[in-house]
Amino acid sequence: MATTLQPQISTLAEFLALPETKPASEFIGGSIEQKPMPQGQHSRLQLKLCNLINDVAEAKQIAMALPELRCTFGDRSIVPDVAIFRWPQIPFEPNGDIGNTFTTRPDWIIEILSPDQKDTKVIRNILYCLRYGTSLGWLVSPADRAILVFPADQSPSELSGNNKLPVLSGLNMDITVNDVFTLLR
After folding, report:
1. Considering the entire predicted model, what is its pTM?
2. Could you tell me the domains of the chain?
3. Cβ 98 vs Cβ 112: under 8 Å
4. Digit-coded pLDDT (tens) for 86-95
5. pLDDT in tens, 11-22
6. Which of 108, 90, 114 has its CA nearest to residue 53?
7. Which is it for the CA torsion 2, 47, 52, 71, positive or negative?
8. Contact 109, 149 (CB under 8 A)
9. Closest among 92, 52, 46, 100 to 68, alpha carbons compared
10. What residues in the chain have per-residue pLDDT under 70?
11. At 58, phi and psi to the nearest 5?
């Protein structure tokens, strides 16, 4: 469950000056909320989804999936479970290393519900990203074995079983909801 920390911090700049917390804290609506500590299923899905996406997208420099990456844009600083960026959106240092600071929204956001986590807070973050230009959001619910899909400019839909999941355009990936939850094994 998210907890609100240090309500005296009122600006994004003040928040960004604070040291990082574990688990990560996010700045949303003028307050600081700490994310829940990831548990086994959450961590496993996060790792496997990043690997699966990067296996398809990274070598071809199409996109990159990053776990627990701080993304600061608009008036929020959030830490999606998986943030996927198209290659041109990724900040690189002059020497070719990936940059540390991401000041834009992800192109695709994946959130994985942890036990006792409020889905409305996570949905609000996905909707916020969509308002800033994110193309696709997934809300993965291990307990329900279902995934809410949030395509840009379309109504969300709940998919389960052998329903094929939409992915970021340009990625040659065929994945179903069952495929995602098979990653838990």
Report:
1. 0.93
2. 37-182 (3.90.1570.10)
3. no
4. 999 999 999 9
5. 999 999 999 999
6. 108
7. positive
8. no
9. 46
10. 1-7
11. -75, -45
